[in-house]
Design goal:
The chain has 1 helix and 6 strands. By secondary structure, the protein is mostly beta strands.
Length: 114
Amino acid sequence: MASRKQERRVHRRWELTCPIAVLDAKGKVLFKTRAVNVSDGGAYCTLGVDNLASGSLPQRVGIRLSVPRSTRDSFMFEEFQGAARVTRTEPLIDATRAGMALQFLQPLNLDLNA
């Protein structure tokens, strides 16, 4: 019988695609991309490998995350800001794309349970 890897995540992960801007220490946008899943504790993004090619991606970055919200009559994005640690980057099947995992330094209250 195969053993299951113990889940270490504290926050529930939601498969939700939303815009995210990755910022340097001075608040300048390094690049914009999309998170493909998010939680109050972090996000996983896909990005072009050219954003990683220079090797200049810092371990700690700022983020601006836009979470989609909708009601019966409207659609909007709610913006959240914070700091994150880049926990890993990895190549994806498409050689032009990479994945990047971010852990927020302080959990965000994204209110995704609704």
